[in-house]
Amino acid sequence: MPYWAFINFNVNVLSMSKKGRPKCLRVVRDIPDIDYFKPRGIPLKDLESVRLKVEELEAIRLVDFEGLKQKDAANEMGISRRTLARELKSGRMKTAEALIKGKAIEIKGGHFITKKRSFICKDCGYEWVEPSGTGRPKECPECKSNNIQRRSDYGKKG
Fold first, then answer.
1. Which residue in 148, 157, 71, 54 sits closest to 107, CA to CA?
2. Among 47, 76, 82, 132, which residue's beta carbon has the most beta carbons within 10 A?
């Protein structure tokens, strides 16, 4: 095999391992409390499901539920309007598939951060949420202890 073919092959193999730009984190209001929907009367174990990413749900919430224009919703999520349109289209398609084909909807995962931060008091176990940008709380609102810690599982990508 010619020397130049070997170099070209190695470059192509290396470039296949990572494609495109890295995704930027989408900003969502918070992680939804409810993470599953399913048709009534059918056990979950008997259903197929579709996975709706948290940021897809957030795009649907902002545009379809809150009535924001796509440009404003994109600003709210910290992404471009085109990226919002892709998230919205994907989320709508998955939701429509679940409704039409009788599948469960699992809301999980994605590439996002939340606007809120969750803390726990190590002394009394009290948990609470603070909005981003307000600084670290000085004490627990329940027992006034300063032995507090930010919950690391809140607002991470999944």
1. 54
2. 76
Q: Pinpoint the residues of the chain covered by CATH 1.10.10.
A: 22-113
pTM of the model: 0.67
Structural class in CATH, domain 22-113: mainly alpha
The pairing of strands 116-121 and 36-37 is unpaired
The pLDDT tens digits of the residues spanning 66-78 come to: 999 999 999 999 9
Please list, in sequence order, all residues whose beta carbon lies within 8 angstroms of the beta carbon of residue 54, skipping any fewer than 6 positions away: 28, 31, 32, 107, 108, 109, 110, 112, 158
Q: Bigger pLDDT: 5 or 133?
A: 133
Structure tokens at 142: 């329940």
pLDDT at 3: 43
What's the chain's Rg over C-alpha atoms?
21
The answer, yes or no, to whether residue 33 has pLDDT greater than 90, is no
Give the per-residue SS3 of 50-103: EEECHHHHHHHHHHHHCCCCHHHHHHHHCCCHHHHHHHHHHHHHHHHHHHHHCC
CB 102 within 8 A of CB 39: yes
